[in-house]
């Protein structure tokens, strides 16, 4: 049972990097590619339908970690407290930008919230790189380490590349590239490589910190039946909002 839950946890974390990576990547590129207000509107509209569905993966990652690896929860919060707080604030700021940018029709208002989207995306991307370094060392090394900072830069660049290929898929020709579904899949896989590498190295550590078998059995009954629902919802989002004539119509809540 420990191996099954490790595989599920790994799939959720890797899936989050592969999916939420392009959300954050588009946010990172907002001040670079969105030279005009219309351009920024198109970028946000391209990614907006996927944001909430992708964030479900992070919620699932956190829930799985707290339930399956209860001892790890304390170590993560203790060792990464400043980074975790900064990432949570970045998450709030990024989502607030998506929600509030069009609530008032004014260039300064929208410019401020567009900057918050970019700033929050940068904080999350860079923070994930630092958190992965700390996880790779068994949470014994400080995330504020040259290697941790370098990994933060690497993850940020990978997410930006993933966001660029996503825009090319959703808006071929508009942002300096042509549509390529294969490129989107490839950059998604590359963006998930840091998480996959850390998980591979941390597998013995995680298996040794799993919850008791009785707890895992109860979690299996409570949680696993909902996994197909989450996957089905994800497929519905991708099928419904695939590139087409309405690709850049902002949802009402954005």
Topology of this structure?
Layout: H1 2-33, H2 37-68, H3 70-79, H4 81-100, H5 107-136, H6 146-170, H7 181-208, H8 213-223, H9 227-240
Brief overview, please?
It contains nine helices and no strands. The protein is mainly alpha-helical and 254 residues long.
Q: Roughly what fraction of the amino acids lie in strands? A: under 5%
- Compute the separation of the termini in Å: 41 Å
Number of strands: 0
Written as H for each helix and E for each strand, in order along the chain, the element string is HHHHHHHHH
Rg of Cα set? 19 Å
Helix % is over 70%
Content-based structural category = mainly alpha
Q: With helices defined by DSSP (H or I, 4 residues minimum), what is the helix count?
A: 9
Shape summary? globular
Largest sheet: none
Average predicted local confidence, pLDDT? 83
> Residue ranges: pLDDT <50 for 5 or more in a row?
none
Question: Can you characterise this structure?
Answer:
The chain has nine helices and no strands. It has 254 residues and is mainly alpha-helical. The longest helix has 32 residues, at 2-33. The chain is globular and about 55 Å long.
Comma- or semicolon-separated keywords:
globular; 9 helices; mainly alpha; 0% strand
């Amino acid at each position: 049972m420990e191996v099954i839950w490790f595989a599920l946890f790994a799939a959720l974390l890797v899936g989050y990097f592969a999916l939420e990576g392009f959300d954050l990547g588009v946010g990172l590129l907002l001040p670079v590619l969105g030279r005009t207000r219309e351009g920024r509107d198109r970028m946000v509209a391209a990614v907006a339908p996927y944001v909430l569905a992708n964030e479900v993966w992070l919620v699932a990652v956190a829930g799985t970690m707290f339930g399956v690896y209860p001892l790890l929860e304390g170590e993560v919060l203790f060792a990464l407290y400043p980074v975790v707080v900064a990432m949570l604030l970045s998450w709030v700021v990024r989502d607030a930008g998506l929600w509030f940018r069009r609530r008032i029709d004014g260039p300064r208002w929208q410019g401020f919230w567009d900057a918050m989207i970019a700033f929050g995306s940068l904080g999350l991307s860079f923070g994930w790189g630092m958190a992965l370094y700390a996880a790779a060392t068994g949470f014994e090394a400080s995330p504020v380490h040259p290697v941790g900072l370098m990994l933060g830069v690497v993850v940020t660049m990978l997410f930006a590349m993933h966001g660029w290929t996503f825009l090319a898929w959703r808006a071929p020709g508009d942002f300096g590239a042509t549509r390529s579904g294969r490129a989107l899949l490839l950059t998604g896989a590359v963006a998930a490589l840091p998480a996959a590498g850390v998980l591979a190295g941390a597998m013995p550590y995680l298996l040794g910190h799993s919850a008791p078998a009785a707890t895992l059995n109860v979690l299996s009954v409570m949680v696993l039946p909902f996994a197909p629902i989450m996957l089905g919802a994800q497929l519905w989002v991708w099928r419904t909002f695939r590139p087409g004539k309405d690709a850049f119509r902002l949802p009402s809540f954005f």
